[in-house]
Amino acid sequence: MISKLLGLAALVAAVELPDDECADGEGQCALNALQLRGQQLASEDSNSSDSGPKCAPLSDPSNSVCAPVVRWASRGGQYDPHANDWFQDMQDISKVSFHHASLGDWQKLYYCAPPGGKQCGTPPCDCTHPPCNVCSFDSGGGGAAEAKGCAANPDSISCKPPKKALDYNGRAWDPMTVHGFGPFHVFAIGDWGGMDGSLRPIEGRPELIAYPQGAKSGPSVFPRTRWNKAHTKELCDHKQFVACYTTMGMMCDPGCGFVKGIDDQPQTLVASAMKMHAAKKDPAFILNVGDNFYWGGIEKTCGTPMNELSYTAHHQFNSIFEGIYNGKGLDGKVWLSVLGNHDWGGRVFNNGWDQQIAYTWKSPRWRLPAAYWSQHVDFTDAGFTMDIFLVDSNAMDAKDLMKDSEHNICGAEHNPAGATCASAGGPESLGSCKQWFWDLWAANQAWLAEGLSKSKADWQVAVTHFPCGHESSFWIGMHQQHGLDLLVTGHRHDQELWSPGRLGGLTCFVTGGGGGISSEATPNIHNKRDWYGEAQYGFYDLLVSKNTISITSINWNGYEIMTRKVYPK
After folding, report:
1. Contacts (Cβ under 8 Å, ≥6 apart) of 337
2. % of the chain with per-residue pLDDT over 90
3. The pTM is what?
């Protein structure tokens, strides 16, 4: 492991950008490095053109940073003992093995997914398999655009992506039909997407590695912080937590409550429990409450054309989603999804959130066509229906410029100068960011109230990211005045099945323990002093019939912990 890290470091000989945000030596250094360092190197036209950037030869001044290492790689570098590791993306990007790659193919690799971080400033004009100037990935078909019925109804939003990412806000996806007499299982999960340690980032971004063991294929957990239950005392800061992960608990402050074997692999543990349960229960679909990729969603700047899937997005989806949630009972099952605050960027607003929406038309099971949207489900044989409203509540983390920089999508400290997502339909500037998100929330509120009032379904369910307790009066009103039956949330990194009395009769649960980030409190079952709910890592299984929804909390080890029933209002 260490030799691979040292070998990769040998590829990076240029002067690195300073970690100015780490000057104080505090524990936020790794977190800051994952998001801010080097963003000033992002291409100025990455947010403006549908035709891809202009090409240039390797000798062009725009490629001065990458040219030496590209020439080295195309000659002797490909025979290095670590070459299979370094150049593993060549086949996907250039459609040739690195031993048969042309110089243009090498330039394209270092433009799209640069090993060691030395990105070429422009793509090549010549390569083995054009087009040479884009990094979009052809998923090979099977996405929503191939859905049945598109020939008869080509204007359906399922048949083609929007011109801008948010053009379908408030729209309904084609009705879903579930056959059988039930009852039916529906899973719910959130905050599940760990860090992709094998991603070769672009735009000067560093690798998604918070500790040495994260330098691997597949997900690694982001070590956050841990506080007491009242959130008045920090028990473990980020720096202390990183030490726990680095030493696998051998040099770990007791306040961190680190449990080896659980805290170091929660996403895969929860996924394994989910697979085991799915093989037995065969869920109809999955409700996904967001925070799909830590630390900051898709690691590129917003603005990729909606009919394209960037290589960065392809890699993250393959490593963190497709390669993890599969097998009997999960294959082919649709994930009805929303964005979380980290999907928007976490502490910036201009990361590749639009690529998560674009993936809807590249995958047969990922469904996120807009920031807020709805899904009607007809359980035909069982004789009942359900309307699901997928709501964006991330305005809760859109604050004043100078406020709470570590939990502020619109903060001045971490957003790069000139940040904009105008071409994707998002915030036009940092100055307008907060108002943009709160206007989005107001639109969500009006849309949901209207949709609930018009719904004739037997069940009305809302799915959103921010947890039970946020905007309480609004959600109580949706239940008492408009008939909302169930609220499904995340954001807090644990599992909490609330009693209806806490929200004016509305049943709500938090499923933020998917394992992409460390849990709120220690998962040690002998130390529950700071637990908010019944578990730290896990998911929920909803058993749905015409007259009841039975909600069961499933722990990371597959144990069923708690069950509560919901009745239609």
Report:
1. 288, 290, 292, 356, 366, 367, 368, 390
2. 85
3. 0.90
